[in-house]
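Backbones bend. Shown next:

***
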Amino acid sequence: MKNILELIEYPKEGIISKELVSSQKLDATLFCMAQKTKISEHTSTKQGFVYVLEGDGLFILEGKKIKMRPGTFIYMEKNAVHALEAYKNTAFLLTLT
């Protein structure tokens, strides 16, 4: 049992990722992005979701702009093109199935 909020820590630059679960059926990772960090367009071979825990940023999914604020839930189909940018320190949970 883990308290995800207690695991949040931000680097001065870039991203810290912490693997929470890794199995054949499920991967869950906590991402902590320093403010002004960007992740360029990419895809995943698995479907999944992003759940924003804290911060402020922008998630671009298949060309659609989605504000990343606490409580935001974003579902992604497999192979969906996406990118993101943290305006402030931003933490989110990424779960892939």
User: Anything to note?
Assistant: Residues 35 and 89 are 4 Å apart (CA to CA). The beta strands are 15-22, 27-33, 38-42, 48-54, 57-61, 64-68, 73-76, 82-86, 90-96. The mean pLDDT is 97. The helical segments are 4-7.
